[in-house]
């Protein structure tokens, strides 16, 4: 069960997006939330108050220039202490790219990200397999569904020790796997994972960049028409309504 | 003014892509004798007074909580720079 801290209901659902120094994709995430029918709430890293939101997105970018390690400094932000407490209480939290890195640094998700095995920054439209459609952020998809969303990163190689990887697999906590090509050397083609409770999800690719026809990846419907990322935000809305 | 040196290395079982790129480039300069390179990090933490055991303990704690990520890195050294000439 997912606990809602604010007003529930799709139209009234408030979803926060935290901006850190060096965040790039906060505006796209806020826009995706609006397009999905919820109320986007901008949050600031230095503010411990989450303003009564029903869910939180930690967006992509290069917070603190990836200095020290990607996400290592942001993880100690005042807002992240509140997010960690709320996540342990069941608040749905989605970490995208740098947000995923911040969640692993905060130990809300296991493992870590290191530099891509080929050492290059990569930007492409990436196909993923939805392995787990029971998390707070993936119920709108079918298990085994293929979705295409943009991928862009430098430190995207997911690593964890073998025991952790076996545990993730056994508990169904691998949420997304790369399909066709592993773009960064991630262990077992892992693109995204969840915590035991299923309310915290992190992934390297960017669903918030695939939410509006004309601005998404190419799809069967035509160039830039892909909106496969909308399902993340539709999922969390139905999770909140059901709560 | 005292100085504490903290050294952090990627864990042996983690592939170090940066070290791999460096070892690949060394032979181009004629350095063919090096078979492996691993790249780590060195931090220099300065304090106003001397490096006391308390300062070293605090540095050790900082090394384990923030300067390294125990999932991918090991803290290999936390030392008073003046004592070891580091």
Descriptive notes:
The complex is a heterodimer of chains A (243) and B (86). Chain A has 243 residues and is of the alpha/beta class. Chain A has a single domain (14-242), classed as Class I glutamine amidotransferase (GATase) domain (Rossmann fold). Chain A has helices at residues 26-35, 78-88, 98-105, 162-170, 230-242; strands at residues 14-19, 39-44, 55-58, 93-96, 112-114, 122-130, 146-153, 157-159, 174-178, 190-194, 200-203. In chain A, the strands form two sheets. A nine-stranded mixed beta sheet of chain A has the order 2-1-3-4-11-10-9-6-7, sandwiched between helices. A two-stranded antiparallel ribbon of chain A has the order 5-8. With 86 residues, chain B is of the alpha+beta class. Chain B has a domain at 2-13 and 39-84. Chain B is elongated. Chains A and B meet through loops of A and helix 1 of B.
- Number of extended strands of chain A: 11
What is the number of domains of chain A? Answer: 1
> What share of residues are in beta strands of chain A?
15-25%
Distance between the termini of chain A: 7 Å
SSE order of chain A in H/E notation? EHEEHEHEEEEHEEEH
The number of strands of chain B is: 3
Gross morphology of chain B: elongated
For the report, how would you describe the main beta sheet of chain B? 3 strands, antiparallel
Q: What is the general shape of chain A? A: globular
Features:
A: alpha/beta; Rossmann fold; nine-stranded mixed sheet; two-stranded antiparallel ribbon; 5 helices; B: 86 residues; alpha+beta; 33% helix
